[in-house]
């Protein structure tokens, strides 16, 4: 039966059995069933469950769970397919990772598919004169409200780009400041 350990930094490690667990560090806890995970998680703040979930590979990040039981069930299911293989006695499942946005910094261009609408809009906004709302609408086929929402939400908040907005000759113009 696989046994899991979780340390204070939320690194989860899976072992083939409890016999294979090497020296546990201070604050490292062990569990082998969803019930044991639930018992451990009853002492944790809800934010830790969210942090554990969001650090699991291949899951959709969440801001919060509807209940502690939902969080425990989802985490347990997510770590089940990461059991150690035949000869391996130990396999790292989750390592806490910092936000990619924080690591990349605001000036780094986020990964964008080539020739996508996002890439086209970014290219237009990086021009020295920027791009008018109407120019962006023509390039993407979007309505004005969609362009404004995209600039604010996707480029500004999600991608962390600094987009300057101003009026030139009565027209709204957007410009990415480097």
Keywords:
single chain; 178 residues; alpha+beta; Arc Repressor Mutant, subunit A; 2 domains; 4-stranded antiparallel sheet; 3-stranded antiparallel sheet; 7 helices; 7 strands
Structure description:
There is one protein chain. The protein has 7 helices and 7 strands. It is an alpha+beta fold and 178 residues long. It folds into 2 domains: 3-97, no CATH class; 104-176, Arc Repressor Mutant, subunit A, CATH 1.10.10. The strands form 2 sheets. Strands 3-1-2-4 form a 4-stranded antiparallel sheet. It has a 3-stranded antiparallel sheet with strand order 5-7-6. α1 packs across α3 (68-80) and α2 (46-55) runs parallel beside α3. It is elongated.
Question: Count the helices. How many?
Answer: 7
| Measured distance between first and last alpha carbons | 54 Å
Q: How many structural domains can be distinguished in the coordinates?
A: 2
Which parts are unreliable, with pLDDT below 50 for 5 consecutive residues or more?
A: 85-93, 99-107
* Order of the strands making up the biggest sheet: 3-1-2-4
Q: What is the structural class?
A: alpha+beta
Approximate helicity band: 25-40%
Mean pLDDT comes to: 81
Q: Tell me the Rg in angstroms.
A: 23 Å
N-to-C series of helices and strands: EEEHHHEHHEHHEE
Basic shape? elongated
> Main β-sheet: number of strands, strand sense, barrel status?
4 strands, antiparallel
Q: Strand percentage, roughly? A: 15-25%
């Amino acid at each position: 039966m696989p046994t899991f350990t979780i340390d204070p930094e939320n690194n989860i490690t899976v072992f083939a059995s409890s016999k294979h667990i090497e020296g546990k560090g201070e604050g490292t806890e062990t569990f082998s069933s969803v019930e044991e995970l639930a018992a451990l998680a009853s002492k944790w703040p809800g934010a830790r469950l969210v942090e554990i979930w969001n650090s699991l590979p291949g899951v959709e990040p969440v801001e919060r769970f509807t209940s502690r039981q939902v969080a425990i069930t989802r985490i347990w299911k997510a770590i089940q397919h990461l059991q150690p293989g035949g000869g391996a006695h130990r396999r790292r499942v989750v390592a806490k990772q910092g936000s990619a946005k924080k690591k990349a910094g605001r000036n780094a261009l986020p990964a964008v598919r080539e020739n996508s609408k996002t890439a086209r809009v970014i290219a237009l906004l990086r021009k020295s004169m920027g791009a008018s709302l109407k120019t962006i609408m023509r390039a993407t086929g979007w309505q004005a409200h969609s362009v404004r929402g995209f600039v604010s939400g996707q480029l500004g908040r999600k991608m962390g780009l600094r987009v300057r907005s101003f009026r030139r000759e009565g027209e709204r113009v957007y410009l990415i400041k480097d």
